[in-house]
Structures are given as C-alpha cells and as structure tokens.
Amino acid sequence: MSTVDLNVDQQPATKDIGMVSSDVSAATTVNLIWQISTDGLIEKDWIDFLFSEFTVNHIDDPNFEVVIDHAIVITRGDPQGTTSVKDYLQRFKQQGYRVGVLHLSDEWFTSPVDFYAEADFVFRNFYRPDVAHLPHVLFVPVGYKQGLHKYTVERPIRDRQYYWSFAGQLGGKVSRRAMMEQAQNIPGGIAYVGKGYNDSKDLSFEGYVELICDTVFVLAPAGNRCAETSRFYEALEVGAIPIVEDVSKLNIIKQILKEVLKPEKAKQHKVWTLRYWKDAVSLLLEPSYWTQVFGPDFPCPKCSDWKQLAPTLAAVDVEAVAQETQAFWQAYKQQLKNDVRMIIARHFIQ
C-alpha cells in the first residue's frame, strides 16, 4: 500500500404522478433561479443532468429580485442564506406562479426548512428525517463533481491497476482513521490522505478521476453527518465498486456523546434542542441508511466495522458485483431523472 500526503478532500421514493412524454417536457422551459454563485460550482454537471430533459433558462439572482412563472429556486443549506427564502417564495404564490426549490447541501440538518411549505415541490440533498414525510419533497443525491466526465477513462474492472484506493481527508473522523488502519494492510491499494477538503496540492482533480477509473474498490466512508458523499457517486459513475460505511448504532451513540460532551460541538449542533434529539432517536431507530434510501436490493458492499474490510473485499465476486452495481446505478439515474421530469411537468405543464 502506498500513502501520499495530500489535501483533497436517497432515495427518491417513486410517486404515482402520471406519465409525461419527453417531447412535452423538452418543449417546456424551466427557469432556474440561482441564489448562489455558479462560479466553480461543483454540482453544476449533476444539476445539468437532472434537468437535461427540459429547456433550461439560467438566471443569476442573488438578491431575491426575479419572480417569474415556472421557476425553480436554487439555494444552499445555509441558515444565513435561507432566512429570506420563505418570504421570497410567497411572492411567487401571490402572483399565482408555480415555483419549486432545489435545496443543495444541508448535510448537518441546520438549515431552516419552513420555506418548503411555500413551494409546489422541493428537491433536496441528503435524507433528512424531519421532512421525509412531506409528499412534495424528493431527495436527490449530491451526485458527482463538476468535470468528472471530462477526465473519465473507461476501463474494464478486470484491467484496473489498484485493488482499492482512497483520496480524501481523515481529519477528526475516527472511523476514517480506523478504515485506513485496516486498508494499509491490504495489498494492491493506494491512499492519498490530506488535511482539508478539495486541497489538491499533490493530486489534481484530473489525477483523482484517473485514480478511481483505475481502481476496483473505492473506499467511500461516511461524510460529516450523513453516510453518503460525492465520492460514492463518482465511484459508481466511473464503473468502480464503492465500499460504503454502514454506520453502526454504536458509532451513532459515540457521535451523539461527542456532540453532547464537547461544548463547541454542542453549540454547533444545537444539542439542547428538541429537534436534535428527535433526529438522534430517528437515527437509532431507523434501518441502515443505504437500505432506507436505496431499498433492500442496494448492491454495494457495506462495512459497519472497518475491521471487516479485508474479508468484505475478499468475499466479493468482482465481475458479478461490478455488473450488478452498474445496472443498479444506471437504472437509478434513469428513474431519478424520470421522477424529476414528472414532478416538474405535473406542476409546470398545464
């Protein structure tokens, strides 16, 4: 195993909303109103994919000024950036306009979501228990980063150089350090370990894409709070097999204790609020994140204890699982795009 010092760094329940032909949707203009800057936006390619069956009009409007029909407002999961979204959306309703929301990020579940009630529909990243019951909310993945396809090299799984790889930060994430302790004992792999998110001092994004294109198993540990990261989707997109972290109940309890017992963490995550404890209880009572979001047939290998990494990899029929994960991913993307298309069409096509 080689280690290089580096700084790099749900799902939609199908609703019965009728069939809409792609010809009709392509003839419909969707106004994407960007309340965030698109400069260097890592989600741009993924967002383009989600709305690829519509004619899209992009509007930069960071000051909540544009109010037009058939609009989707794109906002970040940032409390400072969403406090006025509710009032803004009400202006659409006052004009009788149809409006949706694409709510990016919000991995920490700290963003206000009261503005969801003012939208005809909401697409949001990350499965969040307190809005999961809302019928007009569709969870969409964080997806892959901008530029992935530009550098992708198609390579059969049997011809890949690295048995496993990981590129990212370990930081204070105990589970990631446990993962690396186990991975470094497995021959045929390589790790690029960094100190911060997306700091490409030693590995460019192009180099990262080339790496995962040449990897059989991409280690995809959990993110800051949610199990999924863009690394998981990027591995799928280039034909690798992601090994995901299936967060154990014990690890959830450890995380809660860490947030409760450390004053700075307690303040950051608002641990004394009722919502925090509702979220904590739901995490402990709910099944596996991956099964909950993707269903019982989720095909990617899972590790709830990184000590089981070596036997988990050894048990995988690489050719068969690679085919199974690709079939799953392609079908999932198509269904997701269909869901997005039908939801928009139901509200925007009269």
UniProtKB/TrEMBL annotation:
InterPro entries registered for this protein in UniProt: RXYLT1_C
Q: Domain RXYLT1 C-terminal spans what residues?
A: 159-279
Protein name (Swiss-Prot/TrEMBL):
RXYLT1 C-terminal domain-containing protein
Task: Tell me the organism.
Answer: Leptolyngbya iicbica LK
